Amino acid sequence: MAKQEVxxxxxxxxKELWASADQLRGAIEPSEYKHVILNLIFLKFASELFYRHYxxxxxxxxxxxxxxxxxxxxxxxxxxxxxxxxxxxxHKDYNxxxxxxxxxxxxxxxxxxxxxxxxxxxxxxxxxxPTNYFSRLGLTGRTLKSxxxxxxxxxxxxxxxxxxxxxxxxxxYQYFLSSFATSEGKRGGEFYTPECIVSLLVQxxxxxxGKVYDPCCGSGGMFVQSVEFIRNHQxxxxxxxxxxxxxxxxTTYRLAKMNLAVHGIRANFGDTNANTxxxxxxxNLKADYILANPPFNQKKWRKDDELTDDHRxxxxxxxxxxxxxxxxxxxxxxxxxxxxxxxxVMANGSMSSMTSTDGSIRKQLVxxxxxxCMIALPGQLFYTVQIPVCxxxxxxxxxxxxxxxxxxxxxxxxxxxxxxxxxxxSRVQKELTAEDLKKISSxxxxxxxxxxxxxxxxxxxxxxxxxxxxxGHDCVLTPGRYVGAEEVENDGxxxxxxxxxxxxxxxxxxxxxxxxxxxxxxxxKGIGYEI
Length: 531
Hints:
Helix 2 packs antiparallel against helix 7. It is built from 16 helices and 10 strands. By secondary structure, it is of the alpha/beta class. The protein is globular, with a radius of gyration of 27 Å.
């Protein structure tokens, strides 16, 4: 099958599967749709991977060990116990007592039992799968079976050259995460960061080896793209990367663990979901890379008498309780190794706010020379309210690093204004294109010294400013203050002639406006209205 035909067929069945979620309409709350579909996708994925390995063991003459867990987990394959296996079309010859029977009456109980047993047998899934979730939903067996029948259309042979079961299911899982985030709007943005923003962070930080951390990981998209970035770089594998994460919401914590499992990625999520500020599950971590999208402008994140002397604020003013932006920034800075770099998304107000201690903390960050780069992004990138956002890139130090190819950047800050970039992909949403991402990230790398070209300031787009210049702007970090206006190409028309022409055009338009207003008043008067 040609690659284009494969892609088209994939897209068609993904859309079919998305349409199957409509069967849930009216039966359960819309916010539950994603948990139904994504848990079922995971169950099918784990079973598919299990049976692939099961076949390999048989081919190797190891039939006596087909039900020994160790022969699966040693190869990073989930062990799926008897009675919990999803029997797909290509495995009809297997003993049905080993599999879910798909009898409508009691199907919800079967699925709950299957998820529970898989979690019990695989330590890496501890806390990832729900307990008695499908039984509590109240879905009819007929509806549930219809959805499962739809998921059976996932043909793992529909894959690009060299793709694995993990690749296929990973892409499907990511497709559904994105689709659910779009459909849920503001609430969807709480668990999913748009792919183009994650791509930009990953391309700027290049997390190829070492420890990577996300203190508010949502559904884990930062890690998925980090690993994909590594896999696309010859000679590197995800074995070079150790992943650490934390997530506050229990349902999102589970989504993240499942998402990474479906992508074949191992990570340390801590023992449970927890508040990063009050229950830091990686206290001694010093990360080489931090990628994050913290909650925007989080109110009342602590009480007045809480965390006032926390070690994470040492050397800085204590972040105020009315907005957590500065607290997230200082938390991430405290987690960096001496050669570490962090990149994260923030609301635009973080660049200029003088409220409470925000201004003084930003000034301390500038004076301590931790700010590497500030990137202003276009609006309408998020599924949430269309609040304008920016990206901060910070480092513990900006000294030259010959091994990484970094030049000395002490007392310098790069400002990039990308507000005019992006293209509309729907009536309400914009996306950064591949060309946009390349232009922004290559500008950063050229400035840092590890790019393929020479850096130069571009009016209206980028500017390398000194710390003294930033202080001269009261440590406000808005790129527009530094990059200046974009140069406009001279069209050859003399200024006096252009002004005369534009003035005449304006006068003509004002006269036409007055004529239309009078015409409107006359029409309204004719039907008895006076204005």
